[in-house]
Amino acid sequence: MNILSIGGSDPSSGAGVQGDIRVATALDVNCFSVITAITSQNSTKFSDVESISPRMIERQIDSIFSDFKVDAIIIGMVYDSNTIQIIHSKLRGRKTLIILDPVIESTTGGTLLKKTALESFRKLLIPLCFVITPNVLEAQILSGVKITNESDLTRAAKKLYILGAKKIVITGHKFVKNKISDFVYEDGKGSTIPGNKINEETHGSGCTFAFALSYAIASKNTLRDAVKFAKHFTYQSIENAQRLGHGIKITNLKKDKIKTELSSAIKEFENLRESYGLIPECQTNFVYSKQNPKSVLDILGVSGRIVKAGKRLIVAGNLEYGGSKHVATAVLTMQKKFPKIRSALNIKYEQKTIEKFQKTKNRIVSYDRTNEPDKTKNKENSSISWGIKNAIKNSKSAPDIVYHKGDVGKEPMIIVFGKNPKQVVTKISKIL
User: pTM here?
Assistant: First the structure.
């Protein structure tokens, strides 16, 4: 996935374009950048700001779109009317997803959007965006509505909708004691997504939220699910915040080890000799679970599939928690009896493949889908759970392979399990 960040330069790297690049690295996506202004700031104070010329902003934007595919654009600091006008002229008419994160004041006290540019911001940038993500203060300034309670959030959101924003997320309202919540407005309706209040002031949390939201929306999540993802991701960055200087802490983003390990294993699987021959008609997914998962939302998988294209494999989709249903359900069910099993990959059933696994001394069990009761056949994702439970009910140790020979309208399948993705790929490599 490629996301373009248009915004200011922050030398502390807590926020701005540098902050977005840090978030992108943690999410394992590419971040292109267009600098609109250079700031002088650190963890204690904001010193100065200087705009980049409209001509240079235009050239930066052209250099990106002339060479790269862009899945989403996030617009942050724009500072003045000239910057807003050139961004509008370059982006209007584009079908790319645009997320507008109003940046009006810095946490360290600087002005990041001139008052003289507010009208241009309202008229030229808000109509471009799919989602706008102001905090309460920014929503007040842009909408002209004083926000003192939850009903004011709806009024402010309606004003922003009239200005052209298709969807609105007003972040950080504190109208419920010990809670800090986000207000989501779409399709004429508003709702609140609550969260626990964190008594910690940090630099960069707003930018982190907006970038994570952009990633989640570009990954085809609903707006509410995208907000939940961004909120959780931002909480983690605040909890891990570091005091690098003499002032406020800077959000810290730890790369997801589960995602790193699964991504590496998928690449290894892609490079296995003749691995394309293992892909079933329903295609393949590869998953890796957190420890002690409660649901498939705790299991990382490909949001689409690993598909065969001639003699090579293509990963069609992103790595997301909850990205897989069937293979993730298999791991979830296996974990209840054998907690150390956290990864799995499904491949095409062939008897010769089973025989190869037998020769490499894998523990193999199976189940008969023709014996499945109607109540599970008719319930979504119940078949996999039923099948794995039946396959392992007499097992005293975790199997390496579980397979079935199909049923009417159901493709035969093999699932390879392991403690981690590397172990799964190693088992498969020994039969190729």
Answer: 0.65
